[in-house]
Amino acid sequence: MKKFDFRDLFVLDLANNHQGSAVHGIAIISRCAEVVARHGVRAAIKFQFRDLDTFVHKDADRSNKHVARFLQTRLSWEDYLALLYVVKQRGLVSMCTPFDEASVDKIVEMGFDVIKIASCSANDWPLVEKAASTGLPMIVSTGGLSLDQIDDVVSMLEHRGVDFALMHCVSIYPTPGEMFNLKNIATLRARYPGRVIGWSTHEYPTDVTPVGLALALGAEMFEKHVGLSSLSIVVNSYSASPEQVSDWIYAWKNARMLLGSADRQVLPAELREIDRLRRGIFASRPISAGMELTSEDVYFAFPYEYGGLSNAEWKSGIIATDYLPMDAPVLKSSVRVPEDSDAKILKDATHEVKSLLNQAGVTLTSDFTVEYSHHYGVKNFREVGAVLINVVNRLYCKKVLVQLPGQHHPRHFHKLKEETFLVLHGTLHVEVENRVRVLNPGDTVLILPGVWHRFWSNTGCVFEEISTTHFGHDSVYADQNINENPYRKTTVDHWGRFQL
């Protein structure tokens, strides 16, 4: 079954702001629908259902503000159907928060799209069980819940196969700024990876700063109470008018534009600006063709001249291919720049390996050795190879393997070793006896002795190899040239700072 898309969804909570009038409720929905259409975003109108005849105790104190409000804003089920019709007619997602089991039945009967569990009901197990049994996608607010309590809700819903998302929420109306604790969004994202985390807001509706901060911390869904003032109706201090909803969505769109992409980008316009500030390399004396340049033959000066070598490209071993007069720029077309040394190639790769380990959350001590496998030479390491970090090798063996994006490891088998791969980060393609498996984080594959296998990664991958004892010369490659190459590995202590 296709999962519900919670991402970039704006939840507009009607709550009791219909004031017990279907006409007023329809006006709020219609005005909010106009705002949503104008901004071109996805939004849900959220109702709140209470079967008031059974929800409110017959002897309840009518001076309780919540009891009074619930009873004074009562709508008939027919009125709710009229409101729901407008929601669907305007192309909005229909959502409802039940506060009792009878209301869950009404949600299903009326055909709502999503169930929202309020913070006060998140550990109301009879109600949550009933909602989970509907098969509808669910959103759970977490106001006032400890992490242990949220763990319980998440575990219960995952066990029942519910399609759900979480909302960070502070159940104080309105919420003072010092109580927002927006960093909780990042905490929930880290604790429940792959789960959509939202931000249910109760701040003053004129404050549009939090939505951008929430987005930056990883919130992918946003909720706000909405209302509409009239001559006889005063909206509460945490509910937004349609105009304020528009300002809120605009602030979100602006923040999203400013945040841009998480992928590192080097923009052509940026490079042009940097080039204007670079120092170039210039001849400090006349240089003859065929001459190897030393630091005494050149100097660095601003501005950099287009087509010339910049100071960042200086290295030893540059050969002049043309005559260069004194003070002339050292043009790329007038020199031959040597290829990177083997040590430089492996050192550069090490920086990327460390970055992948950081992304994977893998922490190492200083007590390990690193094996750079470069089956067809270091110059081809970025295409064919892998980095093997030897953690322990006794009766049991554990290695952490890293492949950079685009690297592959050639087909081979082990004479003695039995090994299991466990993917920690990225995606790994493993071919075992001509059958290809795609492994994602948490996936494993067993490889027995004598079994042909190879592996590669398009994304870059960190995985564990857990095996029996590793012995030297235990690998047999399909390509005999690799078997006969005594220089196909470089092994160093730690990262080999002074050994490469």
Task: Describe what this molecule looks like in 3D.
By secondary structure, this protein is an alpha/beta fold. It has three domains: 9-259, Aldolase class I (TIM Barrel, Alpha-Beta Barrel); 268-336, Alpha-Beta Complex (Type Iii Antifreeze Protein Isoform Hplc 12), CATH 3.90.1210.10; 342-493, Jelly Rolls. It contains 13 helices and 24 strands. It has helices spanning 22-39, 52-55, 65-72, 77-89, 101-110, 125-132, 147-159, 183-191, 209-216, 242-259, 268-275, 342-360, 480-483, and strands at 9-13, 42-49, 93-98, 114-117, 138-141, 164-169, 197-200, 221-225, 280-283, 298-301, 319-320, 335-336, 369-373, 386-393, 396-403, 408-414, 419-426, 428-432, 435-439, 444-447, 453-456, 461-468, 475-477, 489-493. The strands form five sheets. The chain has an eight-stranded parallel beta barrel with strand order 1-2-3-4-5-6-7-8, surrounded by five helices. A seven-stranded antiparallel β-sheet has the order 20-17-22-15-14-13-24, with helices on one face. The protein has a five-stranded antiparallel β-sheet with strand order 19-18-21-16-23. Helix 6 (125-132) links the parallel strand 4 and strand 5 (138-141). It is flat, with a radius of gyration of 32 Å. It starts with 8 loop residues before the first strand and ends in a 7-residue tail after the last strand.
